[in-house]
Amino acid sequence: MPTDAALDTAPARRRVVEWSDPALVAKAGQGLDGLAFLRAMMAGDAPPPPLIALLGIDLVSAELGRVTMRMGPGEYLYNPLGSVHGGALASLLDSVMGCAVHATLPLGRGYTTLEIKVNYLRAVTAASGPLTAVGEVVHAGRRQAVAEARLSDGAGRLCATASTTCLLIDLPPPATEPVVAARTRVS
User: Fold this and answer.
1) 112: number of CA atoms within 13 Å, CB side?
2) Which of the 8 DSSP states describes residue 77?
3) Across the chain, how many H-helices and E-strands are there?
4) Which phi and psi angles does 77 have, rounded to 5°?
5) d(Cα 95, Cα 149) in Å, to the nearest integer?
6) pTM of the prediction?
């Protein structure tokens, strides 16, 4: 076990994260169907959601009902046991499955995760290399969608699988700028 002196001399690590205003992210998606919005993010024409920036996730490809993302297993994602925290992996899997569902939605429709199940198959560390998550829609109905995902390490070994059920919703119409009445003077 390291002594207090050893902990005091360990080099500090630092990670700076920048993200876009979430309201701007949502606004960027208005007027686009789900697949077009994902492709706009890939092209840099729409900013990614803050969580994607925080975890260091890259949106690699988006097709109808299928999305691929990558994430480096940096030590800033570690749990106390020295491996990537399961919550970080679950967030990557939830994101890739949700985006696969999003890629099927027309303009004016959205989704939210109802449930997620993750099966962790092997520990992930920085030595695992870049992680690749592939999400695919299994069923897309009018009110619900089901998707599955596979997470592989840099050597192509399967690290986790997941499934989700998403609730499909109608999005509120875009907000219009508030109308401010001109001041009137009453005598």
Assistant:
1) 4
2) G
3) 5, 6
4) -100, 5
5) 10
6) 0.88
